[in-house]
Amino acid sequence: MKTKLFIKNAVSNLPYSIGHYLTYIPFSWRLGSTYTHSTQLIKKYNNFSDDEKIAYLLKKLNQIISFATNNFDFYNNLYQEYGVIGTKLKYLDDFAKYPIITKKMIREHTKDFSGAMRINTGGTSGEPFSFYIDKDAFAREWAHMHYIWSLKGYSKNDIKITLRGKNLGNKNIIYNPVHNEFVINTYKSVANFKGELLSLFRKYKIKYVHGYPSAIYKFFKDLEEILNDVEKKLITNNIVSCLFGSEFPVPYMTKYLEYTWGLDYISWYGHSEMAILAYDQKKSNQYKPLMTYGYAEVIDNKLLGTSYNNFDMPLIHYDTGDRVECRKDKNGLLEYFSIKEGREGDFIIDKLGNQIPLTALLFGRHHKIFDIANFIQVGQPKNGVIIFFITLKDTAKVDSTRIEQYFDLRNVEVDYSFEILNTPIRSKQGKMKLKV
Questions:
Q1: H helix or E strand, kind and range, residue 255
Q2: First to last CA, the chain
Q3: Do residue 257 and residue 275 come from a single domain?
Q4: Residue 38: count of CB within 10 angstroms of its CB
Q5: Total domain count, the chain
Q6: CA–CA dist 306, 294 (Å, integer)
Q7: For residue 104, is pLDDT > 70?
Q8: What pLDDT band is residue 2 in, cutting at 50, 70 and 90?
Q9: Residues 158, 23: Cα–Cα separation, whole Å
Q10: Do 244 and 238 contact (CB within 8 A), yes or no?
Q11: H-helix or E-strand containing 415?
Q12: Are 202 and 303 contained in the same domain?
């Protein structure tokens, strides 16, 4: 493990003059046969007839159910309790008879499993959560990610800049040949390395911007303040699309990038447990699941996923914790889902106990605050009480004691207050959530 880490760090620190030659090495060589098989399977599945798709899914589901039953006491005991032990799915509708697995259940039975890689995450609730993924998980992941990016014309030889929560120390920009990307230090002000950034765009044809939507939004907000029109055109001249990951792209950020900078984007849905991967090509909160990655379904507005490729720790009928609306095709397969509440599409609870989605509270009303603020976040210490956390464009131009006038909160049964922040609240990974 230490040797692999040393090699990874060494490769990641190669200069572009040397490192870019690595981009000519096919991913099939880098990640092995699983990457190649997954890439081919995606294309094959997309050309399947309806009957072939159902046959494929039944085969994968029956395979993982049988394996889980025969190899893990957790599933064997659970399926005996629900009376489905030894049964085989003949129709996809039969899958609804199987019990739903929750994060709490997995947390209590983690010791029953073992595998190639153990992942530890704080989860969306902040509670520690550990699970196993198999050794081929990342090869499958990249095959599916590259498919999503290809919908915007991406190929592995294209250069992108990446903005995530990675702290690069004293460095402003580093080149990562593994993904042919220049990683930007999001912990530093762009104004401090404007010259280096402009030099980068003059020298290289940057075609994609990849990262957290909030990080990309802030990057371009900062650029708007320090660049002239010629420099702005230099930045966007070759950009084909933004690639949004890990956060739900909230409307005021995407509208700014589209209308002010003319930038296109694609976003996707995924989670650490690797049971579902879906993409929103139409930019309309309609996430189309990739069924070759995992089986996605919706029952009672619960988004469920099945990781039928993970034989180290199968997650079968796993509740992601997200509540969605969905549309199914004529065969009952999930066509797309729209996130309404839960991990990314959060809500607040008013004094009467009603759930109010933040998308409705913030974006369904014409708040003047969006004219003077860079970021808006919401906290709820208890039902009926909310705090707006606001990062202003220019605090000198706003009377913070009269911030209420910039909101339309009529007919909302909550008590509210405001806090002005210098920077938005972020997680340790640098992610920014709408609800904090």
A1: helix 251-261
A2: 36
A3: no
A4: 23
A5: 3
A6: 6
A7: yes
A8: very low
A9: 9
A10: no
A11: strand 415-421
A12: no
From 341, 358, 390, give the residue that closes a domain.
Answer: 341
Q: What is the pLDDT of residue 3?
A: 37
SS3 category, 262:
coil
Domain boundary at 316, 341, 366, which? 341
Task: Tell the residue number behind the tokens 């010259």, with chain if given.
Answer: 195
Report the distance separating Cα 108 and Cα 290, nearest Å.
29
Helix (H) or strand (E) holding 50: helix 50-71
Residue 436 included in any domain: no
Q: Are residues 258 and 167 in the same domain?
A: yes
pLDDT of 393-416, one tens digit each?
788 888 878 888 888 887 778 888
Pair 242, 298 in one domain: no
- Which two tokens mark 317? 């009928």
Q: Locate tokens 């906290």: which residue?
A: 379
Domain presence at residue 432:
no
Residue range of the domain that includes 380: 347-421
Residue with tokens 């250069």: 159
Radius of gyration over every alpha carbon of the chain, rounded to an integer in angstroms: 23
User: Would you say residue 45 lies in a domain?
Assistant: yes
- State whether 383 and 332 are in the same domain: no
Identify the CATH number of the domain in which residue 287 sits.
3.40.50.12780
- Placement of tokens 């589901």 in the chain: 61
Position 253 pLDDT exceeds 80: yes
**Distances, alpha carbon 52 to alpha carbons 37, 46, 56, 289, 296, in Å:** 18, 10, 6, 17, 17
Give dist(CA 221, CA 186) in Å, integer.
13
pLDDT of residue 283: 92
Domain assignment present for 16: no
Domain check: are 167 and 246 in the same one?
A: yes
Q: What is the mean pLDDT of the chain?
A: 85
How many Cβ atoms are within 10 Å of 111's Cβ, its own excluded? Answer: 8
